[in-house]
Design a protein that fits this description.
Number of domains: 1
Number of strands: 6
Largest sheet: 6 strands, parallel
Family: Belongs to the thioesterase family.
Strand content: 5-15%
InterPro entries: AB_hydrolase_fold, TEII, Thioesterase
Helix content: 25-40%
Protein name: Surfactin synthase thioesterase subunit
Radius of gyration: 17 Å
CATH topology: Rossmann fold
Pfam families: Thioesterase
Structural class: alpha/beta
CATH architecture: 3-Layer(aba) Sandwich
CATH superfamily: Alpha/Beta hydrolase fold, catalytic domain
């Protein structure tokens, strides 16, 4: 017996598109349907304007998602995507939508602990963006030597950093879903900043640390997916056992 089908909506990190989660579709079992959310200004939504207001973006995605949202579902976001997943969960609740099965926040400091991101509130030059990109790691070296690739990547990255830097946290009713946080042992995001996520949920909370830096999501992909599946199985409030 296996869990019933679940939709896993995945939100990308800064500068990335929905393609960041393409491999997950082949790596996860059939009962988990991976549905990466494409943000405006990239991928198949390239012609749409980039967004620099986190609340507006979350509201836009919630309105789009509410038209086809099915239970059960979960939200996953890495770095910027973790914060956006949090705001999306609140925006969906405002629309009267059911709570997710779980919210997974990866390599993302808690919404109340984003002091170090205030430096991103002002637009960065191309050189500043490149320095930031190099410091984060996870970007293939060939990208930095490809002028055409950079011309496409830097505007997206600039907008995404503004999303982070201009974000302002405010307290709301606690989310009615478990929050599972993932971190990298060599990442700059502190354990304290990750642990503060527990203040945002009225349900279960967990924190798991993986080997690697900010992009442990790539280096430890298999372990991460196994951990994610375990949490989805353990917390299957809305899942029904069906034949595989």
């Amino acid at each position: 017996m296996m869990p019933g089908r679940l939709h896993l909506y995945c939100l990308p990190y800064s500068g990335a598109s929905a393609m960041a989660y393409a491999r997950w579709r082949r790596s996860l079992p059939a009962w988990v349907e991976v549905l990466p959310l494409e943000l405006p200004g990239r991928g198949r939504r390239f012609n749409e304007p980039l967004q620099t207001d986190m609340q507006a973006l979350a509201n836009q995605l919630a309105a789009e998602l509410s038209e086809s949202l099915r239970q059960p579902y979960a939200l996953f976001g890495h770095s910027l995507g973790g914060l956006l997943a949090f705001e999306l969960a609140h925006a969906l609740r405002q629309l009267g939508m059911p709570a997710p099965q779980a919210l997974f926040a990866s390599a993302a400091p808690a919404p109340s602990r984003r002091e170090t991101h205030l430096e991103l509130a002002q637009e960065l030059s191309d050189e500043q963006l490149l320095q930031r990109l190099r410091s984060l790691g996870g970007t293939p070296a060939a990208v930095f030597d490809d002028a055409e690739m950079l011309s496409l990547t830097l505007p997206v990255l600039r907008a995404d950093f503004l999303l982070c830097g201009r974000y302002r946290y405010y307290r709301r009713a606690l989310l009615g879903c478990p929050i599972h946080v993932l971190g990298g042992k060599a990442d700059r995001v502190s354990v304290d900043a990750l642990a503060a996520w527990q203040d945002e949920t009225a349900e279960d909370f967990s924190l798991e640390m993986f080997e690697g830096d900010h992009f442990f999501i790539n280096a430890c992909e298999q372990q991460l997916l196994e951990h994610l599946l375990g949490k989805l199985r353990d917390g299957g409030r809305d899942l029904r056992a069906t034949e595989a």
